[in-house]
Amino acid sequence: MDVLHRLLLDGRDTAVTQDTAEALLERRDVIGLRLVLEALAVADDDTADHLDDAITNVCRQSDEDVAQLELFCLELASDPAESVRGEAAAILLQLRSSIK
Fold first, then answer.
1. Residues with Cβ < 8 Å from 32, sequence gap 6 or more?
2. Looking at the whole model, is its pTM more than 0.90?
3. Nearest Cα to 37, choosing from 12, 13, 15, 4?
4. pLDDT digits (tens, 9 = 90+) for 1-59
5. Contacts 24+ apart (CB under 8 A), 50-56
6. ∠20-61-27 over CA atoms, to 5°?
7. What is the pLDDT of residue 98?
């Protein structure tokens, strides 16, 4: 997991960051999303932009993708790690505000 975390936070090569995040998110499971959210919580602004882009590219392409993202974020909203809970809650807030 340390290697994945380093790849997700590679500030020198944001293509690596985005590619790694997209590969994890393409697993379509809560574990991949959790790893991305964990990195997002501590990423600098530029890296965070690429992590956000990965979430958009993989998890917001269809209504089914968005529904799955919402389910995973609901589960991660009770994660033991405060940083993951916060990022999941932020996505849920974005999803809910975009419905209005």
1. 24, 25, 26
2. yes
3. 4
4. 699 999 999 988 999 999 999 999 999 999 999 999 999 999 999 999 999 999 999 99
5. 50/14, 50/17, 50/18, 50/21, 51/8, 51/17, 51/18, 51/21, 53/18, 54/17, 54/18, 54/21, 54/22, 54/25, 55/21, 55/25, 55/91
6. 40
7. 81
Distance CA 28, CA 44 (A): 25
**Between helices 63-76 and 30-40, what is the axis angle to 10°?**
70
User: Hey, what amino acid is at 82?
Assistant: E
Per the CB < 8 A criterion, the answer to whether 85 and 76 are in contact is yes
- Identity at 77, one-letter amino acid code: A
